[in-house]
Fold:
Amino acid sequence: ASGKVVIEPQYVFTSGFRHIENRAFVAKIVDGETLWGLIDEKGNEILPCIYPNLATHSGTAVNFQREKHGKYGIMDFDGNILMDPRYGSIQKYNSECGLIAAGDEWNKNGVARVTDGKVIVPFEYEYICFEKGYIECESPYGGTYCYDYDGNKMPSDFNSHFWERNGKFCM
Structure:
């Protein structure tokens, strides 16, 4: 480190550049509200500090809210909207298959396709986990169900064989 100032002090928080390659979450206080944005390593603003909430999923995309207590959507790291805000929460984003695990206003989870918003797993589950080639869903009433990436429910014997073979739970 040379001690040279690269980015003038102007943010109340920065995530550093560890979560996203060449990008960092930053926050400013505007009219008493904490608003988030994204900068590159030279300090260029990629996303202005106008979002009440920004978060990433394994460095593949950004959750965002346009208004405090509003719905969540997904965008890429250049600010291109992949899915407009429409969910109460977004827990996971799988960029390989273009699906999100999201929550509705009743705290039930389901899965939707990012490209067209089509719900492929109904919003009725407690936990959802993306596995290689399928989606595991745990019901709040007990029982685990699996769906393929097109939203087809897998046969019930698929679930029991999976649990016997792997013996793990997905939270």
Q: What stands out?
A: Residues 112 and 118 are 5 Å apart (CA to CA). The two ends are 41 Å apart (CA to CA). Residues 156-166 form the longest helix (11 residues). The chain is about 5% helix and 50% strand.
